[in-house]
Amino acid sequence: MPCGGGMVFRKVEVPAESPLADYGVTLGRDGDDWGYIEYSRPAHIAGSFSNADKSSRYYLIAKYETTELQYQAVHAPECGKAGMKGLMPQVSISWYDAVAFANGYNLWLREHHLQQIPWEDGNYGFVRLPTETEWEFAARGGLGVTQSQFRDNTFPVPEGLNQYAWYAGSASANGKLNLVGRLQPNPLGLHDMLGNVDEMMLEPFRLNKLDRMHGQYGGFVVRGGNYLTPASELRTSLRQENNFYQDKQEYTAKTVGFRLVLVAPSLTSRERVLAIEKDWKSLGKSKPAQGADPMKELEAVQAGVTDLALKKKLQKLEAELRANTQTRDEQMNRAIRSNLRLGAFLCTKLQDDGKYVDLMSGLYDRHCGSAPAGDERCLKRRESLTNSENLLEFTLQYYADTVVDTGLNYGKGAIEKQVPVADKELGARGVSNLKSFLKVHWQNLEQYMDNGRVSRQQWLESCKVI
Predict the structure, then answer these.
(1) Minimum mean pLDDT among 55-59, 161-165, 284-288, 417-421: which range?
(2) Contact 403/426 with Cβ under 8 angstroms?
(3) How many helices (H) and strands (E) does the chain have?
């Protein structure tokens, strides 16, 4: 930044293997309270930048709320003096001021540090205010939390909410704005996503109509709550509308600030456009595993129709069918990833239970192999060993059923595409130890789909040797 300053960004990983791929999430919260503003709704998120392995993309979001010193560095005619006050969030500015700050920072970066800006497909990125989806996905913890944690009111706060957020009351902010970054971050390493200051979003406010947003666009959205928000009302779904103007001037407030995201354009080159167009034309046209392909049949019918009115109806029907098929495919992909995670977890259970049975069996043979019949201690050892063997057999049968059910319900190609996505999810959630079990589970599943043999003992041994 100007004046020798800087702005720290954190990666937000999103599984996606192509520019048109995105990741389905549920935002908002369940329940009627404030439902017309915050009711749960489906959304999709995608990153701007490609990772080296091409299995995921990411966008960047500022680690801290924009501070007074950062704001002055871009807008003030002279550099401000470094000090603690400069680490306060910048407040009392309008939405237009925040947009102007982003523009000024972009222009400065391009003039002085162009080569340091992340780029995608030959296009340099830029900073801007976040969209609501970008903000809420990151605030909830993104891939760094489990699906159930993602749907909680707040990201995990094991040390108590007052260690992660500034809110109303003497146990926290006590009615005062606080320095950025003094409390614990969320699972993605982002500070003050809840409390301290409301954060401005890029897009206008809209009401909620259950599974979709209302058609009217209003003022600008602020998210996250501030230092005057009660702890009971602090949540990642919290969203409020502010007017762009107040009386004769732009709206400002001592409780409203902002943070930036760093993203890139979507249509970056002619080659990218052609790739996106190709992917788009294939959406909703996945071939069913069995039976006739309805899309092919519909296209054949359209080719033989000369009546324009009927042709338009058929085209509309095709569009609806493609949309429904696309929704079905996305639901199927989520189900596949859930099955893969279950298989990986069961593989860990097979390892634990299998090794324990081996240990217990060895101890029994060593101590009771030559013991007289009816030895009370050996009878208890035998009973304990039998119980452990039964538990192992139950887990092994459950695992085998999972392999068979997954193989029967989904095609090999569909499963194979979701393996790297599931792998990325496990890694981002801090359970990288499960990735090796996922790899073995996929090998077992692939073997079953190739030869149709239920190789329980082989699958057990494959999990034990990890």
Answers:
(1) 284-288
(2) no
(3) 12, 17
Q: Residue 369, Cα to own-chain centre: how many angstroms?
A: 54
Q: For helices 456-464 and 376-409, what crossing angle results, to 10°?
A: 100
- Cβ–Cβ < 8 Å for 47, 14: yes
Instruction: Please report the pLDDT score of residue 41 as a whole number.
Output: 93
> 117: exposed, middle or buried (C-beta count within 10 Å: 0-12, 13-18, 19+)?
middle
Please tell me the distance from the alpha carbon of residue 463 to that of residue 149, in angstroms, as a whole number.
Answer: 28
Give the count of beta carbons closer than 10 Å to the beta carbon of residue 43: 18
Distance CA 282, CA 298 (A): 15
- Radius of gyration over every alpha carbon of the chain, rounded to an integer in angstroms: 28
Q: Which of 167, 118, 150 is nearest to 10 (CA)?
A: 118
3-state helix, strand, coil in the chain (%, to 5): 50, 15, 35
pLDDT, tens digit (0-9, with 9 covering 90-100), for 1-28: 999 999 999 999 999 878 899 999 999 9
Task: Work out whether the CA dihedral 237, 231, 199, 144 comes out positive or negative.
Answer: negative
Q: What is the secondary structure of 346-410 as a DSSP string?
A: HHHHHHHHHHHHHHHHHHHHHHHTTPPTT-HHHHHHHHHHHHHHHHHHHHHHHHHHHHHHHHHHS
3-state SS, 214-226, equals: CCCCCCEEEECCC
Question: What is the three-class DSSP state of 419?
Answer: helix
Angle at 353 between CA 350 and CA 359, to 5 degrees: 130
Q: Which amino acid is at 169?
A: G
Report the alpha-carbon distance of residue 88 to residue 91 in Å, rounded.
9
* CA 169/CA 148 separation, integer angstroms: 29
Query: Minimal CA–CA distance to 31: which of 40, 22, 43?
Result: 40
Distance CA 157, CA 165 (A): 10
Which residue segments constitute the domains of the chain, with CATH numbers given?
Answer: 2-263 (3.90.1580.10), 329-464 (no CATH)
For 439-465, how does the pLDDT look when each residue is reduced to its tens digit (9 = 90+)? Answer: 999 999 999 999 999 999 999 999 999
With tokens 């109806």, the residue in question is 313
